[in-house]
Amino acid sequence: MGKKKSKEKKGKKKPRKTKPSKKWELYEIAGDKVKRKNKTCPKCGSGVFMGKHKDRWVCGRCGYTEYIDNK
Ligand SMILES: [Zn+2]
Question: Which residues of the chain have pLDDT under 70?
Fold first, then answer.
């Protein structure tokens, strides 16, 4: 009979040096709807935001680039 001991996690928490992602900053509450400020990647689907550059949008995940027309 194998009675497994439940694993106990030994709490050795390392302090994270990485900054928390500021994804919440990309949202804007308009009334009862949430608006997304940034474009989302057409390849990766909604949820993957594209970073805005001076003249283009770039997806950080797949590298998809969409150029902005500055006419
Ligand atoms: Zn993408």
Answer: 1-2, 5, 8, 20-28, 34, 36-37
Domain boundaries defined on the chain: 39-71
Q: Provide the residues around ligand 1 (an ion) whose CB is within 5 A.
A: 41, 43-44, 59, 61-62, 64
User: What is the predicted pLDDT for the residue at 56?
Assistant: 93
C-beta separation of 66 from 56 below 8 A: yes
Centre of ligand 1 from the C-alpha of residue 69, in Å: 20
Distance CA 35, CA 49 (A): 13
- Tell me the CA–centroid distance for residue 33 and ligand 1, in Å: 24
| Joined tokens for residue 6 | 């439940």
Q: Provide the residue count of the chain.
A: 71
